[in-house]
Amino acid sequence: MQVRDFMITKVLTVKPTCTIKDLLAILYTNRIGGVPVVNEAGNLIGMISDGDILRYLSPKPVGFAGLVYIIEDGEMEDVLREKLQTKVKDIMTKKNILYVSPKDDFETAIRLLSKHHFKKLPVINQAKRVVGVLSRGDIIQSIAAKMLED
After folding, report:
1. For 8-28, what is each residue's pLDDT tens digit?
2. pTM
């Protein structure tokens, strides 16, 4: 079996200039947890996930033993509104992005997903363009469907 047998080919991507607010709308509307970030040519340049967003939006403790927060209760919504205008490029994962090709063995992809605890793995062609995505949930559904048919 190869990655091409399990990958999602209808891939949603975002540009690095997309705002966090627009990204949230994409994730929410499509019920997904992350997307590849691509340049104008469609080449993979990063990944962004719901975890990246949560880490960025969470209040940062300061002061003695982290007991004091910068944000007062009344100001939280204002801070969130401001942070939602941040560009994806400012918080996306840019380094050490792992990916697979459609021709890679299925086992290779499973090893990468499990070893690194990824939820999604981009699939790129020889030109470094995103042509698919592998997600843990889709792999489990495919395996279950194949095994339960027997």
Report:
1. 999 999 999 999 999 999 999
2. 0.82
**Bridge pairing between strands 68-69 and 34-38:** unpaired
Name the strand (E) or helix (H) holding 148: helix 136-149
Could you tell me the CA-to-CA distances from 104 to 34, 107, 109, 123, 129 in Å, in that order?
22, 8, 8, 9, 15
Output the six-digit token pair for 16.
Answer: 């690095």
**What secondary structure does DSSP assign to 67-107, as a single string?**
-EESS-GGGHHHHHHHHTTSBGGGTSB-SS---B-TTSBHH
pLDDT bin (cut points 50, 70, 90) of residue 124 is very high
3-149 under CATH 3.10.580.10, yes or no: yes
Using left for φ > 0, alpha for ψ between -120 and 50, and beta otherwise, residue 42 falls in left
Question: b/e string for 90-126 if b means 16 or more Cβ within 10 A?
Answer: ebbeeeebebbbbebebeebbebbeeeebbbbbbbee
Neighbours of 22 (CB within 10 A): 16
Tell me the pLDDT tens digit for each residue of 71-81. Answer: 555 566 777 88
